[in-house]
From TrEMBL:
It is found in: Membrane. The chain crosses the membrane at residues 6-28, 35-56. This is ALTERED XYLOGLUCAN 9. One of its GO terms (cellular component) is membrane. One of its GO terms (biological process) is xylan biosynthetic process. GO terms for molecular function: acetyltransferase activity. Its main location: membrane. The keyword Cytoplasm does not apply. Keywords: Membrane, Transmembrane, Transmembrane helix. Signal peptide: none annotated.
Length: 369
């Protein structure tokens, strides 16, 4: 018992150091701007939660949890958990159906989502950012969303959050954004945010784009990329896809300002761009709308493409530069009631992906304190 108390005291002391040092650092820089304040505040509450939680498990776990206090790294752990979202998809009741004037099968279901309820996730304190919070976070930044129709839907979701209830403005955004196969650019002057959507259906287009930014020496604050479905339909060759992804990875690593300091298997620390990969959604083969799609975009091919992504080492989990926005798990968990064509999903999916990105930005930005 004495030994155990000793261990506990040691743990408490360690926890204090781990909590107070970043807290002090955060306090020192708070005035820099609102974004840092916001992320600092979140980080402090996060750090406190994370470090207090180990003190409540059962006694036999005590010693191991005390030692884990010292090695636990909230930033990495929470980034690994941020895609862990669960869904409640229920038929709408008759009155809300009438109220919403449902014109589409998709609208017949209520889709609610939230971060899963586990112990570990609670410590990360993920939250759905409101419009003002998102505006604070993105104030003054340049955001690029590049890719196929999935990326376009993501861009729409991000703008819906930032522009809020101004439905007239959203209608005009939607009309411009959905001009077939075209780029789109908007400056949201209230918060000085610039967002570009770049139509880039193939990975080689993304690589090309990265090269362009590199030659212009311009570096976006946030960049979200994603492509794969066109490759699957038109090349139908997972090795082709993997090769393209590897080339993209090489280009992206060379775009990063601190790329020379980047060891191959370490996370990208201190880069000034936040880079995301919007994964491929689950394809529901029977719902795809052409014979060619049903034939080529089979489950087996989907899995081969998913493996190609892993093997390309593009993602942070495999030592690469991009953080995954896990469309696969979002769409899988939401299920067939969340899509009308087995490929493009309900707005709720992309809304969740946007919130995953924003929460990751919150966690990431504290590292710049
Ligand atoms: C539902 O919407 C359609 C067009 O979007 C409109 O013509 C119709 O009157 C609406 N019905 C109700 C009950 O609001
Ligand atoms: C954005 O930042 C500027 C200065 O950094 C500030 O004046 C402005 O109020 C901010 N806007 C929002 C919506 O936070
Ligand atoms: C690469 O970018 C250039 C300049 O925008 C464009 O002309 C060219 O078609 C692009 N090529 C590919 C493969 O995307
Ligand atoms: C994307 O790449 C394809 C294949 O190289 C090319 O044909 C197409 O023009 C490119 N599209 C854009 C928008 O750059
Ligand atoms: C698939 O792509 C790879 C790499 O581009 C190529 O070497 C191979 O021949 C392709 N396979 C088929 C069946 O086209």
């Amino acid at each position: 018992m004495l030994m155990m108390l000793g261990a506990v005291q040691l743990g408490v002391a360690a926890a204090c150091v781990v909590v107070l040092v970043p807290m002090g650092m955060a306090g020192w820089h708070l005035s820099r701007n609102k974004m840092l304040f916001f992320s600092g505040a979140l980080f402090i509450s996060l750090a406190i939660c994370v470090h207090l939680i180990p003190y409540f498990p059962s006694i036999p776990d005590f010693v191991t949890s005390v030692s884990s206090v010292v090695v636990f790294e909230p930033r990495t752990s929470c980034i690994n958990l941020v895609n862990d979202i669960s869904w409640k998809v229920n038929p709408q009741n008759a009155s809300s159906r009438l109220h919403n004037n449902a014109t589409h099968d998709l609208d017949l279901y209520d889709k609610r989502w939230g971060w899963s309820d586990s112990h570990k996730l609670k410590a990360c304190d993920f939250q759905k950012l409101s419009r003002p919070d998102a505006s604070d976070l993105l104030n003054g930044s340049w955001v690029i969303v590049a890719g196929d129709s999935q990326a376009r839907l993501f861009a729409l979701s991000l703008l819906t959050l930032v522009l809020g209830s101004d439905s007239q403005r959203m209608d005009s955004v939607r009309a411009d954004l959905f001009k077939r196969h075209s780029d789109y650019s908007i400056f949201v002057d209230e918060i000085g945010m610039k967002m570009d959507f770049v139509w880039a259906p193939y990975v080689v287009n993304l690589t090309n784009l990265t090269t362009e930014y590199k030659t212009q020496n311009s570096c976006p604050d946030v960049m979200v990329m994603g492509a794969g479905l066109w490759d699957m339909l038109h090349f139908n060759n997972a090795s082709h896809y993997e090769l393209a992804l590897r080339m993209l990875k090489t280009k992206v690593v060379s775009l990063l300002p601190l790329s020379t300091e980047l060891a191959m298997n370490e996370p990208v620390v201190g880069s000034s761009s936040h880079l995301f990969w919007l994964g491929m959604p689950v394809l529901i083969n029977g719902m795809l709308n052409t014979e060619e799609k049903r034939d080529k975009m089979s489950d087996a091919m989907w899995h081969a493409y998913d493996r190609a992504l892993g093997d390309s080492k593009l993602l942070r989990q495999t030592g690469g530069p991009l953080l995954l926005l896990d469309s696969q798990s979002l769409t899988w968990n939401c299920g067939p009631h969340c899509t009308s064509d087995g490929m493009h999903y309900d707005g709720a999916i992309y809304e969740a992906a946007v919130q995953i990105m924003l929460n990751t930005l919150l966690i990431e930005s504290h590292q710049r304190l």
